[in-house]
Design a protein that fits this description.
With 306 residues, the protein is mostly helical. It is 75% helix and 0% strand.
Amino acid sequence: MMDRPQGARRVLRLLSCIRFDEVLVLQGAPLLGAVFAMGHFTYQSAAMLLLLMAGNAFLVAHIFMLNDWSGVHQDLRDPTRAAGVFINRGIRRNEIGALLLILLALSLMTLSQLNAATLAIALSIAVAGALYSIPHVYLKGIPLANTLLHVASGLLHFLLGYSVFRSPDMNGLQIGLFFATIFSAGHLTQEVRDCEADLSNGIQTNAVKFGKKRSFIASFVLFTLADALLVLLALRGTVPQVLAMFVALIYPLHFYWMLQAMREGLTFESVRSLQARYRALYAGLGVVMIVSVLLAQKWIYLLPRS
């Protein structure tokens, strides 16, 4: 039997396999969904937000773990990922399988404390993750179908937070469509980044099927459509109007960086650099969203009014 220090080190090594950076990135859409739907901020809503963020963190970690568990053999053949594959770090595949099931159980138990709609959406996201990753279904390797799955998943991630405080309605669907389009555009960019590895592993992503340049242009078209949708929603008053001005500021930067990546040949390094840059831009947009909604709804206080 392992002694306690050795067992603790084993657990920490297992937990280190979680893609915490990716989990953090995917906290944005549910958080913003909750902010748009919440109304007044109270101690009760703060507690509900904490449950939402914890449940979503467990859920997203489960999805990434499932992806890593299912694609371990392909990752071992990818020189950009092989060193970080859990098997090469002394972790067995059955341990990862146990961890991803525990993460799913923790997520569903946490989100079940909120309401039935939130739990149902969480289950839908888990099913989408399974359809994307598990063998014999593996929508990751079916062009166009994988993009449609990401559109649906992006919308569900936003509605996960929105449903905590309000039943999904037309406003929620319209704003959620922005996040859905961004999510699918980002995934197309990732397919371009990983094209060589996917080609060598026989995975038919959009970039493999249609070519890196076409997929890259398609990803930027989707980013453009998402930005245009947000501007339209701002002009209609569905979201704060300041968001239209912020989009006008960041779009030229994104366009310039996109052209730069194309000039550099859409190499792994150039696309990864682009990803880091546009993620920073959209993180800034997320902050502006939160602040502008707080100011517009005037709910920056903790205690209910008497």
